[in-house]
Amino acid sequence: MQLLSCYLFQKLSQSQIEQIAAITQEQQIQKGQWLFHKGQKATHIYLVKEGAIELVIKVEDTIEIPIAVIRPNDGCVGIGALVEPYLYSLSARCLNDSTLLVIEQPKLQNLMRSNPELGCTIMSNLAQKLLARLKETRQEVKIHFMNLVRSASF
Prior knowledge:
Blueprint: H1 14-22, E1 24-29, E2 34-36, E3 44-60, E4 63-70, E5 91-104, H2 105-114, H3 116-152
Antiparallel strand pairs: 1-5, 2-5, 3-4, 3-5
Helix pairs in contact: 2-3
């Protein structure tokens, strides 16, 4: 099942996956269409069924830094919908015509509140993913710092 490709939903029971599936909608998005922009209220979580989503951060109006490309079975985007203040931390657009699985934030929050075990598993999965990303970022900073030190050495 496509939902299991998202790290948020790993370790959930079949019954819990079916509950998530019941609040999931399929949506067609055209190439170039923005799903959301950094700083906007996070209202949805998206999984890629077909196609690809590019995550970017805008440095200026004309300069974008690509952060990642999410394809089928790569996880999800829009996790700001799970953590206060419920804002997107990056911008996302479709790289090509795509089919997405979309979960509305209020519906998922209600499901997590009514089923605390499901909610705890999702939030634990989220915490593990964010910790792994933090470790990766620290390693990248270390590499960049060492490269700066080496280039400054005579």
